[in-house]
Write a structure and sequence with these properties.
The chain is of the alpha/beta class. It has 15 helices and 20 strands.
Amino acid sequence: MVARKHPRGAPAGSGISRRELLQSSLALALSGATPRLRIRQLASGGSRVSNPDMLRGARPLVVQPVLLYSIPQRVPGRSWRSWGSLQSQEAVEEEARRISEELSRLSEAAGFPLTFRPVARVSSVEEAQSLRAAGADVALVYAAGGWIQELNAACDAGQWAIIFVRYRSGPYYLWHEIVHSRFLRGHTDRVQHPKVGLDDVIVDDPAELLWRLRALFGLKNVLGQRIVCIGGPGGWETPEAPQRARERFALEMPTVPIPDIQAMIQAGRKDRRLMDECRREASAYIDAPGVTLRTTREAVTECFLLKKLCQRVMSEHKAWAVTTRDCMNSYAGIMPCLTLTLLNDEGYMAYCEGDFVVIPAGMLLHFISGQPTYFCNPTFPHAGRMMFAHCTAPRRMDGRDLEPVELVTHYESDHGAATHVLFRRGQRLTIVKPDFEAQRWLATTGSITDTPFLDTCRAQVEVQLEADTQEVLKNLRGFHCMLAYGDFRREIRYAAGKVGIQVDIPA
């Protein structure tokens, strides 16, 4: 494994963010170019490493495109047509081809598993209702014509609905005029549609469609996820947190008792072949470029042992996520800090403390970004800056390259192995901070200014906030945070809103 090499605290590589990469590839795709080679070129700003699947166990988002139309019939001497350009069957077929081509280019640029079904041409309630049995995740309704009952039926062709209307991107659509007043507001002065809101309507721009689909992909893959809870599920000073996570996200939380994991560790230590394998993997990790060892090789080896055991219990429970609770006193002498780093860097979701106040946000941000998420403690923001720290930071924060790291001890115990990751300066990141009641989250952005080494948890990152400090302070709730490289505020707000969580984005 080869790590991205840069001096401590210095800028790294090209500095291109995941969002910039996706936007560049989308622009190429929608212009008719083939983006995949360009994506690889853009992504290779630093040294390439082995490429683990960062979306382990993810299910593709299934989208049913629906072209809703009505062909008017001329009536002499009176009004006989509504606004809109699809006034013949030939125009409908041409528009269906246009939609198919646009969605094909969008799929190439998506960067996450996305399945578009063939475009359904719908001009009646019955035709729309026949689509429900297919069980699509998203009804993507191209609302060219039809009336309220047909549009409602078309929106019911998926668990979620997005309405796309054309103004300048092709033939003019009727619902560009009336989707707000007639459909969303229902001839009143308040948006009141039970399924579709303002954020679910798009005019002309496929890029606006793509980020919404990415958000729904993330949400689909959090809903019903199974996460193994070593020591059981919990919540930071919030006993109700696991139940709230079940209610909002339908999470399943199988428990592995701590005595069981300790017995597995003791048995593993006696397995000579297993321990030899752990030592080889630990040595390769320690001796790779970009790694400085400031703890013992044996501590690192034991973290590789615990990693294998966590993978075993996840496999047994058909899960891709794990959390460790009550681990401050170690599991049979192993502090799991580096173990969680290793798992996150291989595309699993691994968090300590069993804190289900924040874990759902980390899982959602993971699937939306396609990258590891950093579970960490916040500090008091001041002068536009905020510091975050924990002992379990991932290194493959961009989903591709390993950041330089100092392998140190866990702070509170001064024992075991943990990471002091040298996050790249200037990197923009998303901060998500959930509340205790699973009702209102904070999402904001900032840029990394430093990776200090203070007397705190080991992986420390100082961030220059983009929002006003006082606005951030007023919106702080809960305790733990989740961090990810890139800007995913709007995706987080859109996805969380679908399960009744308000997300504040301070200015």
